[in-house]
Fold this protein.
Amino acid sequence: MSAIELNARPHKDYSLHLAEAQGVLSQAAAQYAGMEGGAPRITQASSLGAEDVVISHIVNSLKLDVEIFVLETGRLHQQTLELMEQFKASSRAPVIIYKPVEEAVVQFVAKEGLDAMYKSIDLRKACCNIRKMEPLDRALKGKEAWITGLRREQSGARADVPLVDVSEKRTKINPLANWTWGDVWHYIKEHKVAYNPLHDAFFPSIGCEPCTRAISLGEDFRSGRWWWEDEAAKECGLHVKSAEVSALPVR
Ligand code: SF4
């Protein structure tokens, strides 16, 4: 059974959720448009997961002045890499790929091993720092706002995600904050959006290959990520408040 067959069940307020996302994105794109012909001051962080392909599709459909970036960590699944190339070639909005600093990766792997993330939480965070956080800093440089696919439903830690988060120095736009998983898949079905085939193999949340696994029906949404760790340690840093990030031992 495909992810569409399994999940595409819109909430009764789906139309409102869609209009809300379109409105928030349109407003943000206008507010953070490029100055004097320059690059837009807003960018979408895309992991090419289901939520992110929906947002990119809305951005492209509405012809919004928004950049999109993907963090190519060097540990992504082949399916994700293929989707990334396909998406880059077809997107109207510019898609920029950020990779980690090669020397930092080589040194880390030589010292700790390729799969150091399983040895300790600190080493997992160190790996995320090199492969995700430092490239993220580069991706966000010069941007005043960024767009994410966070939804309240995803986990307890995300239950109060606002549509527009101005609590950080850089505004975070979460257009799907109120969407259900069924809404996401209904949109993908309705608009024939290309998605990662790993979703058809019960991967709801897709990250790096060594740190992502399929889940069983009924398991928590994020139990497929860093499953060997305690729940509290699971955010990679991308969506942890900056004060908390700076408190991490790897920062
Ligand atoms: S998700 Fe796993 S492989 Fe990817 S950067 Fe983090 S620890 Fe490394």
